[in-house]
Amino acid sequence: MDGETAPEGYVVEKCGESEANEEEQTTIPENVDPLQIFRMPKRMTLPEKQKNSDETIEKNLRFWKETLENQRITKVLAPMVDQSELAFRMFTRKYGAQLTFTPMIHAHLFVNDGTYRRNSLALVKADRPLVVQFCANKVDTFLAACRLVEDVCDGVDLNLGCPQMVAKRGRYGSWLQDEVDLICEMVSAVRDYCRLPISCKIRVRDDRQQTVEYAKRLVDAGATMLTVHGRTRDMKGAETGLADWSRIRDVVEAVGSRVPVMANGNIQFPGDVERCMQATGAVAIMSAEGLLYNPLIFDDANAHVDTWKIAAEYLEYAKKFNAGTSAIRAHVFRICHHSLLEYEDLRMRVSLEHRIEDFENIVEELAKRAKSDAEAGKNREVEARTLFENIRNGILMNAIEVSKQPHWISKPYFRLKEVAKESIVGEGEKTFREKQKEKLAQTAKEMGVSMKQARKRERRQLSGARILEAKKIKFPPCARCGQPAGQGCANSKCKKCCRYQSKHELLDCKPHRYLFASQPPAVSAEN
Ligand SMILES: Cc1cc2nc3c(=O)[nH]c(=O)nc-3n(C[C@H](O)[C@H](O)[C@H](O)COP(=O)(O)O)c2cc1C
């Protein structure tokens, strides 16, 4: 089936897939437990396309303004690929997030691939209000995707901010901002034919006036809410830098009376929400990285606590809401970022483990070490309090100050460029990055290869050495043959030696699934 030109009322299914028994329920039943997980069905039928009445369009236009006002929503969790998954959405809600966005979903895959659809969207009734975000570059596909989620969320959003190369190749995100007519057509189609209000998430353009014109066009086309990220498309990776809140204010002044504008960028400390609202005039604040490194920044009372406590609680949510391994790993990395820089072996374990129990063990170990670090003389109480006081007094903590705080206290992550801005580097001195670059140029020259190749080789060597190092930690040698022993093996042996010993001595080893003691050999897993 061609998702781009699909006729009305078609059945959406993956090519070659026949799932006669698959449920076709597309709404969350009324009497369901608010925490029960609902997944999108693999097979879905789009109802007849009907044009919205003027009243519906008018109602949708008012929806976000009234919802944000009535529910006093000011704190919003940003859409983040693999990171604003159900578990993290629910976790941040506990600590102050009032509106959440799903990770970006590819509209084309969502419409055409039942397996992708099922895996890309997990929902619970308690996670509302919720916006489902799509990326798309075709009017029909985008509209079909939006109509598929009509009964499971409160709004749909078009991602016009993603600056990555993958988005450039796929022609979506911020790379679509050069095709404003197409964007407007997509937005208008949803306004006219979908029951949900449509919003857009944009980046500021290089030029102030251009940004304002862009925002006006989107609102004219039917956008009922705008999120403005105060960085341009080129501000990414090492060049991320600080968001410019004054550029967000331009948009608020231009269209703020017609639709709500949310500000995004640089929310890293609790007080930043109020500061940003004041500086931009935006009605609400959206945070992404700030919440990843410290999921409690929206909760002024608890904002700076031990990272291992936060990580342990997140893992409970991950278990409850069935988060995927890559999302869990990335969250543990970010929440415990500063501590994992101290404990290299734990960092390696985070990158290699897969099971949730393993992540729990790592966090437990981190807690033990952090506590003993604290007992070993660092004046944790005073330092933590200083950090909090500084924030409360509205003194924006600079990177140097933050880096002085104990690593186990949650705090934001600063990129080198921002650190440099905060005058960690004296005048005329070279930044860490510049020094690294010089070193790499020297290596490349010696090896007679390009800088890119030299960097690749360096990385390969580094990761090889790290994996070997981690393997040493993970797999102690088998007590019999010296090969790596199985993880958690009851006999401290490799699989083969464990089987030999278990069979002859009638022992159980659960990790290797040998049950010679508890089950007769005939039904043992060795067969
Ligand atoms: C891990 C990660 C994933 C992201 N994924 C998305 C996404 O799916 N859709 C989107 O519009 N923006 C995405 N973004 C951008 C954020 O929503 C946000 O606009 C950006 O990080 C700036 O906000 P911040 O300064 O609070 O981090 C992502 C950002 C991060 C860090």
UniProtKB/TrEMBL annotation:
Region annotation (Disordered) ranges: 1-26
A GO molecular function held by the record: flavin adenine dinucleotide binding
Name the cofactor(s) required for activity, per the record: FMN
Q: Does the keyword NADP apply?
A: yes
Residue ranges annotated for the DUS-like FMN-binding domain, each copy included = 77-358
Question: Superkingdom of this entry's organism?
Answer: Eukaryota
Q: Which UniProt keywords apply?
A: Flavoprotein, FMN, NAD, NADP, Oxidoreductase, tRNA processing
Family stated for the protein in its record = Belongs to the Dus family. Dus1 subfamily.
Q: Cross-referenced PANTHER family, in alphabetical order? A: TRNA-DIHYDROURIDINE SYNTHASE (PTHR11082), TRNA-DIHYDROURIDINE(16_17) SYNTHASE [NAD(P)(+)]-LIKE (PTHR11082:SF5)
**Name of this chain's protein:** tRNA-dihydrouridine(16/17) synthase [NAD(P)(+)]
Q: Which organism is it from?
A: Caenorhabditis elegans
